[in-house]
């Protein structure tokens, strides 16, 4: 359950920080302090969000890879180790 929540959290972070979704997020933050800061430092924040997006996608794939390894070891046909 905890691992599933972590995957969902990383997925949500990837969705929010995705560079292609900035066009949808910018109107939502317009008129706020963060929106004004974003307008002033657009290049820097876009770079930071791009890095956060890449890290979150990497973590999602790591969690999926870990789950595939665990599923491969504990399938119905495998003999338990002693």
Describe this structure in words.
- With 82 residues, the protein is an all-alpha fold.
- It has one domain (2-73).
- It is built from 4 helices and no strands.
- It has helices at 2-17, 22-29, 33-40, 42-73.
- The model has no long low-confidence stretch (mean pLDDT 81).
- This is Transporter.
- The chain crosses the membrane at residues 12-38, 44-61.
- Keywords: Membrane, Transmembrane, Transmembrane helix.
**Poorly predicted runs:** none
What's the number of structural domains? Answer: 1
Task: Report the principal-axis shape.
Answer: elongated
| Terminus-to-terminus distance | 27 Å
Question: Could you write a compact summary of the structure shown?
Answer:
The protein is elongated, with a radius of gyration of 19 Å. By secondary structure, it is mostly helical. Helix content is 78%, strand content 0%.
């Amino acid at each position: 359950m905890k691992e599933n929540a972590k995957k969902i959290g990383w997925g949500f972070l990837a969705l929010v920080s995705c560079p292609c979704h900035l066009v949808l997020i910018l109107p939502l933050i317009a008129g706020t302090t963060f929106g004004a800061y974003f307008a002033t430092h657009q290049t820097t924040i876009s770079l930071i969000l791009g890095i956060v997006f890449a890290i979150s996608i990497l973590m999602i794939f790591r969690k999926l890879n870990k789950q595939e390894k665990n599923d491969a070891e504990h399938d119905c046909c495998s003999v338990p180790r002693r």
